[in-house]
Write a structure and sequence with these properties.
Layout: H1 13-19, E1 31-34, E2 37-40, E3 43-44, H2 45-51, H3 54-63, H4 69-79, H5 90-102, H6 105-114, H7 124-140, H8 144-157, H9 176-187, H10 193-209, H11 217-227, H12 232-257
Amino acid sequence: MRKYELTPPSRHIGHYVESGDWSDYWRTAISLARDGRILVRGYPVEEIIERLTSTEAHWLLLKGELPTVREAAIFDACLRSGMDQQFISSAAAATRFAASASQSPVSAVAAGMLATGTVTGSPRPAMELLYAAAARMAEQDLAREEAALAIVAEYRARRELVPGFGHPLHRAGDEPRAAALRRVVERTGGWGEHGLLLDAIHAALEEALSRPLTINLAGMLAAVYSDLDFDPLMAEGISAIEYGWALVAHAVEEIRDGVPLRIIPDALGAEYTGPPERHIPDRNG
């Protein structure tokens, strides 16, 4: 089985109904809460609050163990890499629309997060690609460059975009956020096997297209999170929450200084492409 590949659930509601044994129906390895005591991954919450940084605490919460100094530094850079890029993100636009109507930052941020997925903002598709490619290299004893060429050929044969590459604004040069994240990771010596595999796929894709192509932030995060051994599902959630800080800023700015009930007028690109005016025929005759 490939790493982090989704598998059928091991527990089913029918089993509990039939057995009548619900003793492990609700279970978690994340935290324990009892009268006057809270443990998070086994650590008293007081120690976490008093002794860990936010980055270290969130790594512990997600991964179950404390990070090394290098892991904490890289994860910290990942958490601040998204920041914001004006109105390029669909999540920002969704947040502003919702804030203009609801005047609530909570519902607005939730709307923005719902606009984040596999098409925009998520490293998950590229991570799944990198994990699958690494598994293929091991199974078929392929060199990194051989695997990259095969992957690019397969995507092009299916006329699919290779996830992790391309950007609507930063089309040929470095994507500033992605490039900065890479510099931080490289300074720590943390650019590992999945990062090198991303580079090989990038080179193969540029050769196939005969033009330069940007590694976007989702692609860069995919390589970094894969080298940090994150589950792609977890990385997708982290990226949504990390960009949520920008969504909070957008929501508050929209409520305080925006335009209540925003619309898309013709002057800003709204265009009707349906049939011309017509009328329901008389069906009583």
